[in-house]
Amino acid sequence: MYYMRVQADTQTQTQWSSKGLLRLLRATLPPAGKAPASAAFDAPPQRLTSVQLNELAQKWRRRSAEGDQGADSVAMALELLAERRATERPSRMQAVGRRLSEFMQLS
After folding, report:
1. Are residues 57 and 107 in the same domain?
2. Which of 10, 63, 95, 102 is least crowded, fewest Cβ atoms below 10 Å from its Cβ?
3. Whole-number Cα distances in Å, 74 to 15, 51, 62
4. Which domain of life is it from (predicted)?
């Protein structure tokens, strides 16, 4: 994909390029003065679970089968993150917070 190309000396290597990716993401946003007044732009996205990440990785694998050359690397990154989240132990502070929420019946 064009946003992953980085020139290195005389060879072209495929690597993640944050400049190219950010430029691509900015291009999909509405113009600055014409942004809709919604909280969707203000709120951070929800954290995906390992199951959701695996589902996304499968979709990217399908895109790869359809000919998208960069889709394999995206799928691999999503699978790696899903595996890490599946085996992730919550920190001690998160565990205490969860227990307090359960005790106070907040969750």
Report:
1. yes
2. 10
3. 11, 16, 12
4. Bacteria
